[in-house]
Design a protein that fits this description.
Number of helices of chain A: 3
Helix content of chain B: 40-55%
Shape of chain A: elongated
Radius of gyration of chain A: 27 Å
Radius of gyration of chain B: 32 Å
Number of helices of chain B: 15
Strand content of chain B: 15-25%
Number of strands of chain A: 0
Strand content of chain A: under 5%
Oligomer: heterodimer
């Protein structure tokens, strides 16, 4: 009996991670195009690691890897904030705690002088 | 619990503005102390000079960071990385021991919000007066108070932005350029941007930042265990809550120790009710502990209805401060701090880079000697002038010539031409040569650089 394709679908978490990796890659690629259009990658690498003899290809690769890492961090954190953030309906008050009721402390407690509570 | 009714007919539930009531007590004093110390450091440090430079200055154009007399160069970038790791690990350690201590006492959001609240309270009065002022129609009093508050907030935010830029541009020069209207475009942008961020976060958004924007609030629970300090309401002791006279016997009236005064809610800067249990919105500022202890005192009850406690203690079990994760964090932290301190103390304050001249591999001289030419880049990372000695290690028959004289002023970068000569009998092809750089003034400033000396290949 053949397995139904639906059973091989990715879970929500897997899809989220796939999106994170892909969007981070696209962002790093776009960032690299802009960056390398403006500056010579060898100048950048030489500024920070001129004691190593880094060739131009490695310089391109290292800077892209650095950008990809940064984008991955940003995307992962964004995913985390969305996943752990308010659920649907939050804005209308659904699933939220009620707004705490406050009252004059001395109203039901005559021995408390409400105004002196600093 | 479904709270749709709170929204009424609207599709949006608007939460009331949080105007925390002023509170005094042990933890409030600690919080004030933290504000004074942390913001004091922030506002005063740029004005203090240390070793001829601003005590803390991140000079980006010159690519030098001055921190308490030490100069860090781009090559010291590893220290910045290590400092960030130490900061992260410290956060883990403190959170595992004492919960959200960072949020309640040291987070810039908390600290600046506290100052903005002081100003608001000073101009508009305490919680009740502010609520009344908000509800009142716009009149002369309201316009004056609200405008005064905004003027104070904006002035303070601008001063904060100015100080922020003062960590990157020498603050005295910055002040002078503002007075003489010669402030550069970038300085203007960052001054206004940081001022706006301070005003927006600490004045307008306040607790919304902690509730919706802060990632630390979301993942701090991963560092919690049942022995982590949290602020909790003792439900067993407090419930059922209800009003009473001081002379009443609570047990006769079927009441717990909570008198339902709601002061714990009124002092909360995030506007939550701690009696509903531990909530993500609680920043552990302990204002509710202070006010509840005062109420308990007034009612002649035992303090600690709301207290710093642990989940274990609340459940009647023994709580442990020293546990494996604390030891692991502490050990890693100590090792890293010790490592960074040792490395900073043992930094060699000299950089030397030898680059071969690419025009010619080697030159055959008339006296049967071979010469290689290099470009030498020397960086004096020290704060005093140095006269450098340069020698070839292990090859007595080789000589070197350098021009100009290798003398560098403090923090100067110099480029020199270095010529090395060796007898043709030294070998064939490529020979590895070590060149040692040292100073006469400081024996520990010494660096050896390896390079290749090229000879004829045939």
């Amino acid at each position: 009996m053949t397995e139904h394709p639906v059973n091989r679908r990715w879970s929500m978490r897997q899809r989220d991670w796939a999106v994170v990796f892909w969007i981070a890659f696209l962002s790093a690629a776009a960032g690299s195009f802009v960056l390398f259009g403006l500056v010579n990658p060898l100048d950048m690498v030489n500024a920070w690691a001129d004691q190593y003899d880094i060739g131009v290809r490695l310089a391109y690769g290292l800077i892209f890897a650095f950008l990809y890492l940064l984008c991955l961090l940003a995307c992962s954190l964004t995913m985390f904030m969305i996943r752990t953030g308010p659920a649907r309906g939050h804005v209308t008050g659904e699933g939220r705690r009620s707004i705490p009721k406050v009252r004059d402390p001395s109203k039901s407690n005559p021995d408390l002088d409400g105004e002196n509570w600093k | 619990m479904n709270q749709k009714h709170d929204a009424g007919d609207s599709l949006y539930r608007k939460d009331p503005k949080v105007y925390p009531r002023d509170v005094k007590g042990t933890f409030a004093s600690l919080r004030k102390l933290a504000v004074v110390v942390l913001l004091g450091l922030y506002y005063i440090l740029p004005w203090i000079n240390w070793g001829g430079n601003q005590s803390v200055l991140f000079d980006l154009p010159a690519r030098k960071f001055y921190i308490f007399g030490l100069t860090f160069w781009p090559q010291d970038f590893i220290f910045l990385t290590l400092m960030l790791i130490i900061a992260g690990l410290s956060l883990f350690f403190v959170t595992a021991v004492a919960g959200r201590l960072w949020c309640g006492y040291a987070c810039p959001q908390t600290v600046w919000t506290e100052v903005f609240l002081w100003m608001e309270r000073w101009v508009e009065g305490d919680r009740n007066k502010r609520n009344k002022l908000d509800a009142s129609p716009w009149n002369r009093n309201k316009i004056i108070r609200k405008t005064s508050k905004q003027v104070l907030w904006i002035s303070f935010a601008l001063w904060t932005g100015f100080t922020f830029v003062g960590f990157f541009t020498p603050i005295r020069e910055l002040g002078h350029s503002i007075i003489t209207f010669q402030l550069g475009n970038w300085e203007t942008f960052w001054l206004l941007f940081y001022s706006f961020a301070t005003y927006g976060n600490a004045g307008i958004l306040r607790e919304q930042v902690c509730k919706y924007m802060c990632p630390y609030a979301r993942f701090q629970s991963a560092m919690f265990d049942k022995d982590t300090l949290v602020i909790a309401y003792d439900e067993k002791r407090g419930e059922p809550r209800g009003g009473r006279r001081k002379s009443d016997n609570p047990s006769e009236k079927g009441l717990g120790d909570c008198i339902g005064c709601t002061l714990c809610v009124q002092v909360c800067p995030t506007g939550i009710d701690i009696r509903e249990g531990l909530q993500i919105e609680c920043i552990a500022c302990a204002a509710c502990i202070d006010v509840c202890d005062q109420v308990m005192d007034k009612m002649d009850y035992k303090k600690g209805l709301i207290s710093y406690t642990t989940e274990h203690r609340l459940g009647g079990n023994e709580s442990h401060v020293f546990r494996p994760r604390i030891f692991v964090y502490a050990f890693l932290l100590l090792a890293l701090v010790a490592g960074v301190l040792w490395s900073v103390n043992h930094r060699v304050l000299l950089r030397a880079d030898l680059l071969r001249d690419r025009n010619a591999l080697y030159r055959e001289l008339a006296d049967d000697r071979i010469e290689n030419v290099y470009t030498l880049k020397l960086i004096n990372m020290d704060s005093v002038l140095h006269n450098y000695q340069i020698e070839i290690v292990g090859h007595d028959d080789m000589v070197l010539f350098i021009s100009p004289e290798p003398v560098l002023e403090p923090e100067e970068v110099g480029n020199f031409i270095l010529r090395m000569q060796a007898p043709a009998s030294l070998g064939r092809g490529s020979v590895e040569v070590d060149v040692r750089f040292s100073t006469m003034e400081e024996p520990f400033i010494e660096r050896t650089v390896s390079t290749r000396f090229l000879m004829p290949f045939d």
